[in-house]
């Protein structure tokens, strides 16, 4: 222990009474903290210090507890998990009066300081190869079919399409971020992939990262667990174009939002392009921090409207050509008229009749189409709602409607609830998160699990298969 340390201890002891009475740290404790804080730089390295530890600020000292603050919960948790033991040891070494370390969140505290810290922190840079590897691992694969040439433009998506083109063709950033939103199955992901494909072809020197918000969150959590948060940050901040699909997934996920927010700011400051998609306009995203929502609307916000008859027909014609299938116009017109929910379902319907004709070696006619698509068409003739499904399922199993929303996990309630989720996925065009919300605010992963589970059970358990069938008939019949 250093000289200063021993002196400090002695002085602290004299001051003990004052300290017991007050939370305000004594001059000596302040001195100890100052030294420990600056020692952290060599102890943990420059990069870690600048990104995480620099904002630490001494708040109080009481009964041997040293209380230090950080500006965000995310930082607190991270420091708590990774550095707090070592910091306490350093403190205790400097002054034996320090027995505990308490990290608290004081919002607004020197936030400016850390916001710029991460992107300025050049040290500890992962080497280029390492970064490229990580980039490939972290990005989501691109669908080869989702290119501009396969995207049919019509009135409902003209703005979003034009904006996407601009991003690819413009030398300077036309707007930042580009925010594309619209209902499920209307072409958001297709447009995002199209941008990424085009950039790779036309500007191969640029690093383009495309991933779903879900994957962003997953990568982030994984990085936290595996101690590689620094590399994670660097990687995201080193790309030229960052594309995050379905940003609504990070609703309610505070630390992921926080991290995304920092990444967002760092990239915008460096003039890097950001492209975001969501199911709603920025202002309508619930569970997303106000600061982030307003940033998302900074650039161009382009919405994709529900399809029109003309667009649906256009898409079907293009699809028919790609499939090289012999489908009469009358059938395409019929489908464009009937399957109005979204493009994904429209494609699904066409694929089904083509596949059916292939297998049965029959020609496709309006009649065969109506026959093959019976269930789908019926559901569309009379739009089935999640509320209806819940009511019918509850009725069938003799439960109360509230059991569909409740947190009760007893098998006799949970199983029917899963059946209802499964039917909601099958018979409506609602997305997993939307369905989850309708079932008492459950997570989309819960819905996904339910759908898989019921799929399994239908194979294994004749009773369940029959139950599902009965309820489905009641709904579609
Ligand atoms: P979203 O991401 O909005 O839910 P997707 O981009 O996944 O929707 O689109 C669903 C399907 O519909 C995809 O197979 C996509 O290729 C197709 N699709 C959507 N819009 C168009 C369009 N304008 N032209 C051609 N295909 C489209
Ligand atoms: Mg999508």
Descriptive labels:
Helicase, Ruva Protein, domain 3; globular; 4 domains; 8 strands; binds adenosine-5'-diphosphate; GMP Synthetase, Chain A, domain 3; binds magnesium ion; alpha/beta; 60% helix; single chain; 477 residues; Rossmann fold; 5-stranded parallel beta sheet
Write up this protein.
With 477 residues, the chain is α/β, with parallel strands linked by helices. It folds into four domains: 3-105, DnaA, N-terminal domain (GMP Synthetase, Chain A, domain 3, 2-Layer Sandwich); 148-304, Rossmann fold, CATH 3.40.50; 309-382, Orthogonal Bundle (Helicase, Ruva Protein, domain 3), CATH 1.10.8.60; 384-476, DnaA protein, C-terminal DNA-binding domain (Chromosomal Replication Initiator Protein Dnaa, Chain: A), CATH 1.10.1750. It contains 24 helices and eight strands. The protein has a five-stranded parallel beta sheet with strand order 5-6-7-4-8, sandwiched between helices. Helix 13 (254-269) links the parallel strand 6 (241-245) and strand 7. Helix 23 packs across helix 24. Mean pLDDT is 85; it is low at 1-21 and 109-126. Bound molecules: adenosine-5'-diphosphate and magnesium ion. The site of adenosine-5'-diphosphate has 17 residues, from helix 10 and helix 17.
């Amino acid at each position: 222990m250093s000289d200063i340390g021993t002196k400090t201890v002695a002085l602290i002891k004299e001051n003990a009474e004052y300290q017991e009475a007050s939370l305000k740290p004594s001059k000596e404790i302040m001195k100890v903290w100052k030294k420990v804080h600056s020692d952290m730089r060599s102890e943990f390295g420059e990069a870690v210090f600048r990104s995480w530890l620099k904002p630490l600020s001494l708040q109080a000292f009481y009964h041997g507890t040293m209380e230090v603050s950080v500006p965000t919960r995310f930082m607190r948790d991270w420091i708590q998990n990774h550095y707090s033991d070592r910091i306490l040891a350093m403190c205790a070494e400097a002054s034996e009066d320090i027995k505990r370390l308490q990290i608290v969140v004081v919002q607004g505290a020197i936030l400016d300081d850390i916001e710029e810290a991460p992107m300025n922190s050049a040290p500890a840079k992962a080497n280029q190869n390492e970064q490229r590897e990580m980039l490939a691992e972290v990005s989501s694969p691109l669908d080869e079919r989702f290119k501009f040439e396969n995207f049919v433009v019509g009135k409902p998506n003209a703005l979003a399409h034009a904006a996407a083109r601009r991003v690819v063709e413009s030398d300077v950033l036309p707007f930042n971020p580009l925010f594309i939103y619209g209902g499920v199955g209307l072409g958001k992901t297709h447009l995002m992939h199209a941008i990424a494909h085009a950039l790779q072809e036309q500007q191969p020197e640029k690093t383009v990262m495309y991933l779903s918000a879900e994957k962003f969150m997953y990568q982030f959590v994984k990085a936290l667990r595996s101690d590689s948060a620094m590399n994670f940050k660097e990687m995201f901040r080193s790309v030229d174009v960052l594309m995050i699909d379905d940003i609504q997934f990070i609703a309610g996920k505070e630390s992921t939002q926080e991290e995304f927010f920092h990444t967002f700011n760092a990239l915008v400051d460096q003039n890097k392009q950001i492209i975001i998609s969501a199911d709603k306009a920025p202002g309508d995203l619930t569970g997303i921090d106000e600061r982030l929502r307003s940033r998302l609307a900074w650039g161009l916000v382009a919405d994709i409207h529900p399809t029109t008859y003309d667009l649906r027909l256009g898409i079907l014609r293009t699809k028919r050509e790609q499939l090289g299938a012999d489908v009469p116009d009358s059938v395409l017109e019929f489908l464009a008229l009937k399957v109005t929910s979204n493009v994904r379902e429209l494609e699904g319907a066409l694929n089904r009749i083509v596949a059916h004709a292939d297998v049965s070696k029959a020609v496709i006619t309006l009649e065969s189409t109506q026959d093959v698509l019976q269930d789908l068409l019926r559901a569309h003739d009379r739009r089935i709602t999640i509320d209806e499904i819940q009511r019918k399922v509850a009725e069938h199993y003799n439960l109360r409607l509230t059991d569909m929303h409740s947190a009760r996990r007893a098998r006799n309630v949970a199983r029917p609830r899963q059946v209802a989720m499964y039917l909601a996925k099958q018979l409506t065009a609602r997305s997993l998160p939307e369905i989850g919300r309708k079932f008492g605010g459950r997570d989309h992963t819960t819905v996904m699990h339910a759908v898989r589970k019921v799929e399994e059970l239908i194979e294994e358990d004749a009773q369940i298969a029959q139950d599902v069938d009965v309820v489905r008939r009641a709904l579609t019949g």
